[in-house]
Amino acid sequence: MKTARTITELNDNGIASQNLPASRSSAEKDDRTEAVLRTLTANMTGHVMLTGNSADLHFYKGSLKKISKEGRAIISGMNSRTRFVTSRGTIAYRNESAFSFDDYPKYGLRTLQIPQNRKQYDFRLITDFILEENQNEAIVSITVNYPIFEQGTIIKEAAVFETPLFSLNEAKVEITADGNREKTIIIHPEDTKNLLIPGKAFEIKSENRTFRLTFLEKIEGHRFSLIEGLSVGTGYSNGNKVLYINPGGSYSPAPAWCYSGLREQFGFKIGAEQSGKDAEPLS
Q1: Domain count of the chain?
Q2: Is residue 176 assigned to a domain?
Q3: Residue 31 predicted with pLDDT over 70
Q4: What does the alpha-carbon distance between residue 102 and residue 151 come to, in Å, rounded to a whole number?
């Protein structure tokens, strides 16, 4: 029987106020915006599984790829990414490193992203995936130094931890914010949408699978930027029409000063579950 406190590296056969991004209010001036110090224990850039109480997280080269339970996938093909589409071109980030950490009772994976083709560590993005004994949901904590954009640049799209979540090829997706089911948003396979949904806690359902995301205000003594809305959109991933979630970004155009040189932290809890017995086996 697997214990909750497991980090496994697998082999290759085994990934505004004032228009600030995503309706966030900036943290107080005296809040810390440096990543929490971690006891890094091992390089984990290959196939990695973090075993939790209610679900397991799967990574490849530092990207979250799957959420599973008892060896069967709940959500697969996730492949989170960060990029900025601007009026002057696109800045895409790549995974530079991934290390496990063990800070009892917390444990998890820390990843570092930097802009592609640039050794600009000042513009880095650090993501901690945190599990804790006796806790059923994982925490995602992101510390980001945004690039400095040229004056007059328009940020057409900001994707920060943008993740394809559910296929829209056949099934509809239902999104409920803050438990208000009377205002549940339904996205059908034929829809093309980019939405900012107000709220702090979200339940996203596709057939018998449910994904939950709740924005946090504080963790480990660090006060986060308060995000009060989730950006979602439709698009394509590996040829399939999918629903994207974009918890740290926005699909609405914004002037460069909304992001340029900004340093902040934000975080959220995630969890997933599936009813019935027809979950997809892990490949």
Answers
A1: 1
A2: yes
A3: no
A4: 42
**What 3-state DSSP class applies to 148?**
coil
Cβ(160)–Cβ(139) below 8 Å: no
CB proximity list for 33: less than 8 A, separation 6 or greater: 27, 143, 263, 264, 265
**1 in a domain, yes or no?**
no
More confident residue, 199 or 9: 199
Residue 181 φ/ψ, nearest 5 degrees? -70, -15
CATH number at residue 14: 2.70.98
The pLDDT score that the predictor gives to residue 8 is: 42
Asked whether the beta carbons of 229 and 261 are under 8 A apart, the reply is: no
Q: Which residue is listed with tokens 């809890």?
A: 269
C-alpha separations of 183 from 66, 97, 165, 192 in Å:
29, 41, 21, 19
| pLDDT tens profile 139-189 | 999 999 898 898 999 999 999 999 999 999 889 999 999 999 988 999 999
- 17 assigned to some structural domain: yes
Average pLDDT of the chain is 84
Q: Which residue has the higher pLDDT, 199 or 281?
A: 199
> At a CB cut-off of 8 Å and minimum separation 6, what does 10 contact?
46, 47, 48, 49
Residues 6+ apart with CB under 8 A from 116: 91, 92, 93, 94
As a whole number of angstroms, the distance between CA 215 and CA 162 comes to 15
pLDDT grade for 118, boundaries at 50, 70 and 90: low
Contacts 24+ apart (CB under 8 A), 178-185: 179/203
DSSP-derived 3-state class of residue 183: helix
Residue 100 lies in domain = 6-32+39-275
Residue 281 within any structural domain of the chain? no
The whole-angstrom separation of Cα 214 and Cα 267 is: 9
